[in-house]
Amino acid sequence: LLQVLDPAGYVAVVVGIVIATAISSLLVSILYDPLSSSGMVGYRTLQHLKPHEQFCFVASILNEGPVPILLNLVEVSCADEQSSVCAYVLHLVELGGRASSSLIAHRNPKDVFVNLGQMDRVHNAFINVEKKKEGVVVVHPFTAISPYATMHQDICSLAMEKKVPFIIVPFPRKDSGGSSEVDQAARSIIPQVLSQAPCSVGVLIHQTLASSRPLALERFNYCVRVLFWGGNDDREALAYTSRLARHAGVRIFVSRFMPQVHRKEDKEMTWDDMIFKEFTRANADNERVEVEEIAVSDVNQMISAIRSIEMECDLVIVGRRQCTGLSLDEALSEWTESPELGVVGDMLASSDFANYAFSVLVIQQHGS
Fold first, then answer.
1. DSSP secondary-structure letter at 207?
2. Are 152 and 271 contained in the same domain?
3. Distance (Å, rounded) from C-alpha 197 to C-alpha 170?
4. Are residue 233 and residue 347 in the same domain, yes or no?
5. Phi and psi torsions of 95, nearest 5°
6. Transmembrane ranges (predicted)?
7. For 270-284, what is each residue's pLDDT tens digit?
């Protein structure tokens, strides 16, 4: 090339190549979406699951902090052989140096565990549950090695590939004493997952203290509190609760908040009433399920009602967004530290409830 071009021409060619490469890279990053939903058909939500259909989900884990709570969720989600669970356990590992990202499957299509040298205590904890709950729980362990900035793609891509209706992403409480760098990374992943997930998402707010332990499977006893206002996310939360209600070791308390304000009748209200009445009817003879209605007339009364509820439980379930008729988002947005949790989820994750040992599952319905 130097023999054909003079120095000035050679420089021009090199500069042109550099510019063309930069432009093409920029266009690829803008136009190529690895999580494009163009090939997806229908909705992947918990509401669309049949009553005894296998419950499949992706659980993403950065460290061991949420593992005990996730193990309990596996247990409460499988009441019997007719309500089996398939857990895709994705251990996220930060990529060091300039190596390439990789996704490692630890179970092949023949149901043989492989790549054992890259499995760790996180994977083994779930595999032990599968052994104890043979025929009811199936675990598919994965390891994703990638930068923090692209971990949401690993999570969403696996969920899309496996066609699951639910993703669980941990959110460590800020005052729980865990590793600040890893916990911050875990929290930073969540907004991207919420916006790009091909299915519903559950954000699991948890303590990172070692005091959290999975309950013994042979004497399982678990208490769940559900806060219901209305809207897509709350209905999705109630759909998940319906599954938990079939477990003999789970006790459930559902609080429905009834705003005493004028609100024009719409489809949302109709669906809320229909779903809630169906849940109540289905559990009318279930002594482990209790339902109450709480009348509230304004935001302050609603906050007081939440704080007055008996929260001595293991798990609180709430939708990420609520249809309250009380402009809850507008009233509390300036006090919200983590918008990805919604105003109620953020409240439950705040220092106001720091003395309670419960975890919180904040659910967002896909397509809502």
1. -
2. no
3. 15
4. yes
5. -80, 130
6. 12-32
7. 899 999 999 999 999
> Which of 46-50, 119-123, 150-154, 302-306 shows the lowest per-residue confidence on average (mean pLDDT)?
302-306
In this predicted structure, what is the pLDDT of residue 211? 43
CATH code: domain of residue 351: 3.40.50.620
In a domain, 3, yes or no: no
Give me the domain span that covers residue 130: 55-206
Question: Cα(270)–Cα(43) distance, rounded to whole angstroms?
Answer: 21
Which runs of consecutive H residues, i.e. helices, occur in 225-297? 232-244, 267-282
DSSP 200: E
pLDDT score of 174: 67
Q: Are residues 269 and 131 located together in one domain of the fold?
A: no
Cβ–Cβ under 8 Å, residues 68 and 119: no
pLDDT digits (tens, 9 = 90+) for 113-143: 888 787 889 999 999 999 999 989 999 999 9
- The closest alpha carbon to 240, from 129, 59, 76, 106, belongs to 76
**Sequence-ordered list of residues with C-beta below 8 angstroms from that of 160, at least 6 positions apart, any chain:** 35, 37, 40, 198
In a domain, 254, yes or no: yes
Neighbours of 52 (CB within 10 A): 14
| Both structure tokens of 323 | 């249809």
Are 230 and 298 part of one and the same domain?
yes
**CA distance linking residue 156 with residue 34, whole number of Å:** 9
